[in-house]
């Protein structure tokens, strides 16, 4: 039996680090309102990995950028705005704060320290005119208030932690002098510089070959295990999801259409879109099976179809699917799907 202190610690670890509730992020453009994220609810706990999966344009990256409050500056028409919902985050002290209503000063303290993000294109994220050591040391100096020499030593240690050989020499290299895989490791080092509670990885392996992808996934898993941080992993690659995720949220046209434990979602999908994603990948289709592309394309975010947003591409669609907006319905233990005909969806 756990002692009261141990039980309290275990309970704290199971408590969500991030709780997103009915989040709505919209972009007001000259052509109309783009509802990029429309009613998304997600959560992730200490030491847990949540994968957000879907085609490009489904709202995955915007969800991460909304958490980071990196949706554009100045309030112009191109800037994204949170139109509803909440983003509850618990930092090092366990005190909850709603990031939607947090001040710019509060976000400046949280961003890069308690929450960090890895972007999918390190070449455009790294500054080409500064050595990588300076770029790793910058968040350390800002948030930990250490001098330049101490920050440099910490940057070298971080390069070593992420698997870059000869870090004492590499610390003075510029981004263009490194391979794509090494640049992505540098981005991971920057994100981990202040030992964040939550790490958001936005398609961190997209531009890498499969061998380097596997190395980056193993690296993230090791670092997460060692640091106990929560991880939100944004991807379109279901093979990576199986390797890294505890929970999966499948997004389509700005909404969550299926969510649950990774094993359940990947082996027994209950939404036609999830099944279609699996069927069009070599891994999901099974050995020797024919790949089946998903017909059509994502709907315009300016004018999504009525009813179920997937019905124009769905082989199971009936008249009710075009008229009725489905809600997320329990389809198994901790497993929900947004489909009127989920009982007829087979793996």
Quick description:
Helices cover 35% and strands 24% of the residues. It is of the alpha/beta class.
Question: What does it look like?
Answer:
The chain is α/β, with parallel strands linked by helices and 347 residues long. It contains 14 helices and 12 strands. An 8-stranded mixed sheet has the order 6-7-8-3-9-10-12-11, sandwiched between helices. Strands 2-1-4-5 form a 4-stranded antiparallel sheet. Strand 1 and strand 2 (32-45) form a beta hairpin. The chain is globular and about 65 Å long.
Element order: H for helix, E for strand = HEEEHEEHEHHHHHEHEHEEHHHHEE
Count of strand segments? 12
Biggest sheet, spatial arrangement of strands: 6-7-8-3-9-10-12-11
Morphology:
globular
Span of the ends, CA to CA: 40 Å
Mean pLDDT: 89
State the helical fraction: 25-40%
- List the total number of helices: 14
């Amino acid at each position: 039996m756990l002692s009261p202190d141990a039980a309290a610690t275990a309970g704290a670890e199971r408590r969500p680090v991030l709780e997103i509730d009915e989040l709505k992020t919209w972009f007001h453009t000259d052509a109309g309102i783009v509802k990029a994220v429309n009613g998304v609810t997600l959560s992730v706990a200490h030491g847990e990995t949540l994968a957000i999966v879907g085609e490009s344009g489904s709202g995955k990256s915007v969800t991460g950028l909304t958490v980071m409050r990196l949706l554009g500056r100045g309030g112009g028409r191109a800037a994204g705005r949170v139109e509803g919902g909440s983003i509850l985050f618990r930092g090092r002290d366990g005190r909850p704060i709603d990031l939607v209503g947090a001040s710019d000063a509060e976000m400046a303290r949280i961003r890069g320290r308690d929450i960090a993000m890895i972007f999918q294109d390190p070449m455009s994220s790294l500054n080409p005119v500064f050595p990588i050591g300076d770029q790793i040391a910058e968040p350390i100096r800002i948030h930990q208030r250490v001098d330049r020499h101490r920050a440099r030593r910490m940057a070298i240690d971080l390069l070593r932690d992420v698997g870059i050989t000869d870090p004492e020499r590499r610390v003075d290299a510029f981004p263009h002098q490194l391979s794509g895989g090494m640049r992505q490791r540098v981005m991971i080092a920057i994100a981990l510089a202040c030992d964040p509670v939550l790490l958001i990885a936005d398609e961190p392996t997209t531009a890498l070959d499969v061998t380097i992808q596997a190395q980056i996934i193993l690296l993230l898993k090791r670092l997460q295990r060692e640091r106990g941080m929560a991880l939100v992993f944004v991807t379109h690659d279901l093979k990576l999801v199986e390797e890294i995720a505890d929970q999966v949220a499948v997004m389509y046209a700005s909404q969550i259409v299926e969510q649950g434990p990774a094993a359940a979602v990947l082996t027994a999908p209950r939404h036609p879109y999830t099944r279609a994603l699996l069927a069009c990948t070599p891994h999901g289709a099974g050995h020797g099976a024919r790949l089946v592309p998903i017909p059509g394309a994502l709907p315009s975010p300016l004018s999504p179809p009525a009813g179920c947003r997937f019905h124009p591409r769905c082989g199971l669609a009936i008249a009710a699917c075009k008229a009725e907006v489905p809600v997320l319905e329990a389809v198994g233990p901790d497993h929900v799907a947004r489909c009127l005909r989920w009982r007829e969806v087979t793996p």
